[in-house]
Design goal:
Length: about 280
């Protein structure tokens, strides 16, 4: 812990400079993304709507190796339209901004760390660093899983689902963008389950035995979620979608077991340190 103390206004000035640097970084990254319109939209945003997307290419190679043509996955063409005069410009601006935010998350996390680290003891710094690193990695892993796996399968199914042959699907631009952002963020958050599990176990709210006992129920829920976003007749893609979600749960079970095995697995870790320990930390 940094023993150098400052006034409230000194700390406020440090925070203000950290916010300014983060904002400048976001604006710089967002401007770069805005100028790279073809790459941002043609390659990244609308990539999952094309048949040459890596996910569909990989599935075709796997099904060809298995010699199972019935499980072959191909992207059926969908038509995305715009219904508002300014929607394309506003979409370009908003997507560029959020892309800049995503790119700058490591830098923003570093600014937050530099601001709070002087107030932490050495053992607290190690815990916070681990939590920041693992939570960030898990979120990015979840977002990439949604982008490369769940999103293309969902768009392929929902974009071509018809209740009648004479009803044509015309997907609104804002609807597609909202679906992309929602899936990536929600999946990224769901991949934070191991971190959440660790803190719940340490707080005495959750246990390894509970998660182990209800593993079958969790697997059933995962299959239902996977079936909702993949074609119901395609068992292969349904299980491929369910696999990462189930792996996250299994990782959470492992984390819960390790947290239970460590001493002090009750909510004692939430209590203030004693005067004796506090004196040693100083």
């Amino acid at each position: 812990m940094d023993t150098n103390t400052g006034t409230f206004w000194d700390h406020l000035d440090v925070l203000r400079m950290a916010l300014i640097r983060s904002l400048v970084a976001i604006i710089t990254a967002a401007t770069a993304m805005f100028l790279m319109k073809e790459f941002l939209f043609d390659t990244v945003i609308f990539g999952p709507t094309r048949d040459d997307f890596p996910t569909f290419s990989l599935f075709r190679r796997i099904t060809a190796w298995l010699s199972d043509e019935s499980a072959s996955v191909a992207m059926e063409p969908i038509k995305i339209i715009n219904t508002r005069l300014s929607a394309q410009l506003l979409t370009h601006l908003s997507v560029s901004f959020w892309a800049g935010v995503i790119i700058c998350v490591p830098y923003i996390t570093g600014e937050i760390w530099h601001f709070i680290s002087p107030a932490l003891y050495r053992n607290e710094k190690r815990s916070v660093i681990k939590a920041l690193i693992f939570s960030g990695l898990l979120f990015y892993l979840g977002a990439l899983t949604a982008y490369y796996l769940i999103l293309p399968l969902s768009v392929n199914f929902l974009g071509n689902y018809q209740v009648a042959d004479d009803i044509e699907n015309l997907i609104a631009l804002d609807s597609y963008i909202d679906t992309l952002i929602t899936l990536c963020i929600s999946t990224g958050i769901s991949f934070e389950l191991p971190i959440i599990t660790f803190f719940l176990v340490k707080a005495g709210i959750l246990s390894h035995e509970f998660m182990k006992t209800h593993r079958k129920h969790a697997f059933l829920i995962v299959l239902v979620i996977a079936a909702m976003i993949t074609p119901s007749t395609d068992i292969f893609t349904m299980f491929v979608t369910a696999l990462p979600l189930q792996l996250v749960y299994e990782l959470s079970v492992f984390v819960a077991r390790r947290a239970d095995a460590k001493p002090g697995n009750s909510n004692e870790w939430l209590e203030p340190v004693s005067d004796e320990v506090y004196g040693k930390l100083k």
